Amino acid sequence: MNEFQSGLLNELVAVKITTKEEFDKVINFLSINNCFLVNGEPVVKLTYPGDKAFVILKQDNAIFWQPANQELDERYKVVNVIEFFRPTEEEKVVEAKAEVIEEHVDIDEKHLSLEVQKRPANEAIVSNIDEMVKLIPAIEAKKGVVVDEKNYKDFVKAKTGMVPLYRSYAKKLETERKAVKKAYIEPYQEFEAKVNKVVKALNDTASVVAENVDVFVQKQKEALRKERQAAIDQLKEVLISRKMISKEYADQFVFDEKWLNASTSKKKFEEQVEAQFNALMEKEKNDKLNLEMVEKTIINSCLIANIDEKLISREKYQVLLATEGLPKVTEMISDEVDNIKKQSQAVAQQKEAELQHQKEEFEKKQKEAELQHQKELEAVKKQVSQTVENQPKYTPIKRGDETIANVNDKYIVTEIKQTPEKFQGRTWKKTFEFEGDLGALQMLNRYMDVIKNINPTFNFGEVKLTEKELSDPQTGVVNKYNVKEIN
Fold it and tell me: Which residues lie in coiled coils (predicted)?
């Protein structure tokens, strides 16, 4: 491949054409190198524009022609067909050694239209078979011959008997049939084999070229994908940096495979990309408004119903927004709040009923207890009254004008004194010496125990004098001392 051929493929050279022959040679070169038109069709589909001079060039990976007098981009160099096909030094050496094995032919419909001299539709094979067909009734009539003791051997006699003769005739006819069939079928089979070879060559070549076209188109699409994906990513970054859309919603952008088709222009691609980003921005805006409406609906509904808004799941309704829509979701929230309110009221009513039942039970038991207490009190009063009547009369014991006790022959009744409030928390310690007979001491001990039981601050103990010998720690002299011990 020379520099001009490489230049045409790399969009740097334009080839000037003046004849149909030059046009076909250049198109054949471009076809071998997997070139395509603007609409994505193979380059062989490019029509010859006429005998006026024009140039063929490649731009944006597409082949097209334009008049020779039309101004070209300054990067293009215009060459004629002779320069374009001028071989390099290496190619000249190869051409000198190469042998021409076939002349150039066009692979077109004219050269690949099969012409067969067909046999007339009603023409039959010329033979006397029709005369033989007429003999079938006579032949089959022989099936009815009578076979007996006298003639059965004649029917099967070698060479002359009916059975071997009929089989011999049939064998000869079958041999002739096969010979005729072979004479007719062999030319057809040869013809069929040749047709199959041509069909296979055409299909195999078409498959290889189609595969190469697919590979080329795929490469073009991948290159275009990278280019257009880069443009999308750049626009996405700008929109995110300007806080026109969040990354979460920008990442929902979907690349449309139609943007890789040759029919999709750059302008159309950019318009559709902008339209999709605008739709995503609008979606994010509406979603935020819907979420705010859901939150307000939850707060207001709970406030009106006087229930805790924490009982309503925000996450659940945020998910339902995508499938149910805002009106349905707000209705569902209101229904849930109403149900919770009804349940709360039912629970409150049940609690109130339980409390009322407990109150009634308590009042009932209280009345029963009061009645029982009243009965017991009456019984005690009655018992006390009877006891008082049975006991001897009490004689008051006074300290000055104050009666400090009432006594009779068996009992002493005295008031239990309470410590005044201003003396609460204080205690006094006194030491007494008592003297009396055994009865007096026993009564004193009983009173002391009674006071100790009814007043936890009271305590008492007996003080005894015990004689002990103790040594002086300084002199070591031993002396006797009376020591008080409290039991």
Answer: 341-379
